[in-house]
Write a structure and sequence with these properties.
The structure is a single chain. The protein starts with 7 loop residues before the first helix and ends with a strand. It is built from eight helices and two strands; from the N terminus they run αααααααβαβ. It has 221 residues and is mainly alpha-helical. 12% of the residues are buried. The protein folds into two domains: 22-179, no CATH class; 181-221. It is 72% helix and 2% strand.
């Protein structure tokens, strides 16, 4: 409200000053709101990381104290901490995925059954069972990190990595069946062995299982 005793021109000037200040405040709110929303999304995607637990207190305090327009702006430092944490976690998972594909591919290529297939058969199995490692996502910027976790969360990427060995096992099984259509996979008995006598006993049980299956045809171990 304009102060009493001011001339109409002074009041106009004062009102214009208020409008200018309100406009600047609205612009600041709009800019900081976008950064705040990005921080909240990054925080959600970082669930489970130590940094996310640390930042949760700061995020809650900003909300409770309505401190979004405080100076200095508290959001950029929190955003940087989360993006660094997510970049590190995503890079670690991507590295593990790449290494797992390479390790399993080396084992597959060294197997007798795989070597006996024609190039066309190997290419077909590699395509069907998706034996090529996915492309490494760029993680240089905040937007690239957000794009990566939006496409696939950290948890989903870890689950994917855990499932990679099964792809190569299925491919090898199918390779063996192409060579020996009647071949079946045999699962050996699970056991925890501590002594050589226990090992001998397990080998005897395993031999019995395999020998029984051999009566029906070739087996895959």
């Amino acid at each position: 409200m304009a102060r009493p005793g001011l001339s109409i021109f002074d009041r106009k000037s004062e009102l214009e000053g208020w409008v200018d200040q309100w406009t600047k405040t609205a612009d600041s709110i709009s800019q900081r709101r976008a950064a705040w929303d990005r921080l909240r999304e990054l925080h959600q995607h970082a669930t489970g990381l130590p940094e996310a637990a640390e930042i949760a207190t700061s995020v809650a305090a900003i909300e409770a104290q309505r401190a979004l327009l405080n100076d200095p702006d508290p959001v950029p430092a929190l955003t940087q901490k989360l993006t660094n944490a997510l970049r590190g976690a995503l890079t670690a998972v991507q590295t593990t995925i790449t290494e797992t594909f390479a390790e399993r591919a080396a084992q597959l290529n060294a197997s007798d059954a795989w070597k006996k297939l024609t190039p066309a058969q190997r290419d077909d199995l590699a395509r069907v069972h998706q034996l090529t490692a996915p492309a490494v996502a760029p993680l240089a910027t905040d937007e690239e990190i957000l794009s990566a976790v939006r496409a696939s969360s950290l948890a989903a990427r870890r689950d994917f990595c855990d499932a990679v060995p099964a792809r190569f096992i299925r491919a090898l099984d199918e390779a063996a069946r192409l060579l020996e259509p009647k071949a079946v996979r045999v699962t050996l008995p699970a056991a925890t062995l501590k002594t050589e006598p226990e090992l001998d006993a397990w080998l005897a049980r395993a031999r019995t299982v395999v020998a029984k299956k051999l009566r029906d045809g070739p087996v895959i171990l």
